[in-house]
């Protein structure tokens, strides 16, 4: 019995009672949820050792991958797919720890510019290999053609949900 078999059983019973709901869609949706949840749990367990969360790690990596390791606060929210209130809390913590710096924008008096510090860069570079070791486990044994197809399908789903 695999870890998903109980969920398969519930999906089958739901489909019997609600035949208009696609059993395949329910299965795919729950599988995606389980993969995401287990991934987050594993990543958070790792990141806890560095006093980070997946959101704070993502913020560091977004900055790491940005021009001049800098983003406007509003752009960082979008890139991290977080609401401004939560991103403010995350940035408060990262600023307090010296991992990022915040400055008022030269071009927009209401804007804030966030920059990765040397300490933030060092932490991102030291944690990243461990983080990606976990992420890479998700795709172990999946061939390149299947990976490309999965990417195409996920992009299609994102487009379906775009407002």
What does this protein structure show overall?
By secondary structure, this protein is mostly helical. It folds into two domains: 1-48; 50-161, Arc Repressor Mutant, subunit A. It is built from seven helices and three strands. The protein has helices at residues 5-17, 23-48, 54-64, 73-80, 84-96, 118-138, 144-161; strands spanning 70-72, 100-104, 112-116. A three-stranded antiparallel sheet has the order 1-3-2. A hairpin with a 7-residue loop joins strand 2 and strand 3 (112-116). Helix 1 packs antiparallel against helix 2 and helix 2 (23-48) runs antiparallel to helix 6. It is elongated and about 60 Å long. The N and C termini lie far apart (40 Å).
SSE layout and pairing:
Layout: H1 5-17, H2 23-48, H3 54-64, E1 70-72, H4 73-80, H5 84-96, E2 100-104, E3 112-116, H6 118-138, H7 144-161
Antiparallel strand pairs: 1-3, 2-3
Short description:
The protein has 163 residues and is mostly helical. The chain has helices spanning 5-17, 23-48, 54-64, 73-80, 84-96, 118-138, 144-161; strands at 70-72, 100-104, 112-116. The protein has 7 helices and 3 strands, in the order αααβααββαα.
Number of strands: 3
Enumerate the spans where pLDDT stays under 50 for 5 or more consecutive residues: none
What structural category characterises the helix and strand content?
mainly alpha
Distance between the termini: 40 Å
In total, the number of domains comes to 2
Strand content: 5-15%
- Tertiary shape: elongated
Oligomer type: single chain
Widest β-sheet, arrangement of strands: 1-3-2
Helix percent band: 55-70%
> If you average the pLDDT, what whole number results?
93
Q: Would you identify the CATH architecture of the largest domain? A: Orthogonal Bundle
